[in-house]
Prior knowledge:
The chain is an alpha/beta fold. It has helices at about 50-55, 135-140, 140-155, 170-175, 190-200, 210-220, 235-245, 265-270, 295-305, 320-330; strands at about 10-15, 20-25, 35-45, 80, 85-95, 105-110, 115-120, 125, 160-165, 185-190, 205, 225-230, 245-250, 275-280, 315-320, 335-340. α10 (about 320-330) links the parallel β15 (about 315-320) and β16 (about 335-340). The longest helix is centred in the middle third of the chain and has 14 residues, at about 140-155. The chain is globular.
Amino acid sequence: xxxxxxxxxxxxxxxxxxxxxxxxxxxxxxxxxxxxxxxxxxxxxxxxxxxxxxxxxxxxxxxxxxxxxxxxxxxxxxxxxxxxxxxxxxxxxxxxxxxxxxxxxxxxxxxxxxxxxxxxxxxxxxxxxxxxxxxxxxxxxxxxxxxxxxxxxxxxxxxxxxxxxxxxxxxxxxxxxxxxxxxxxxxxxxxxxxxxxxxxxxxxxxxxxxxxxxxxxxxxxxxxxxxxxxxxxxxxxxxxxxxxxxxxxxxxxxxxxxxxxxxxxxxxxxxxxxxxxxxxxxxxxxxxxxxxxxxxxxxxxxxxxxxxxxxxxxxxxxxxxxxxxxxxxxxxxxxxxxxxxxxxx
Length: 345
């Protein structure tokens, strides 16, 4: 067991109300039995669920995530801390560390709120493979979610595939799909710079939403057998349905928070027998007893080693100025943002 002198305080990001972010100074925690204390180097802001929480669009009675140790018992009721993509180094272990606990000095990833120092059960830490830089590791949740989308979608050899939405998650998904022997891969995205990035990440064609249905049907002789929707918008899900072929599959990966989601479920959806499947990373699809969350995470870390997701980062902000990062993401000005210099000052 390794012990170091405890830090006096830490910085922690709190959502104080819709679009109101505070950075608090709190006493730095000491690790309890079985826990590890980690000093954060970088923490990524999710542009999906986390932005919806920041905007106040989630049910305040809804559990934040009962599958993660840091959130059990917590809901989206203001004020609350949030975030789930922190990278740092183990500073100390509490008494009775579990077998296989990361040693002091080890680089680790944790699903915890944004804070400069945190304590968490050592068994909940994910070791970062050698060769994966900290900034790429902080974007691990995007790739894990992309892997889960692929497990739900199960692309078949020769299938024609469309990805609607080319944010960080959509680009991670495109990069993985580019490795498949597909019959075609088209990205749909309104922003020209993101369409350019999708071609760099392996899409064979990138089109704006207003042209998607026509371009997809022309290129794929009637539509795509498999469409992934990760746009974060209701119009994106409609575009995904229109891009699908007869009997096509639409894998819906966005959490469309903030009220009912009116969709055009007449016309092509009805006559084309299009199927919509929800994909959510907290749970695996029914794949059989050999598949576990741990197996999916091991696979995602292995794949992450070959995908430079850190090149998608367009904003780096000190944790102490976190509100600036959320405001820019909320305005749609950035692709991916990191909180850096996560020290307690």
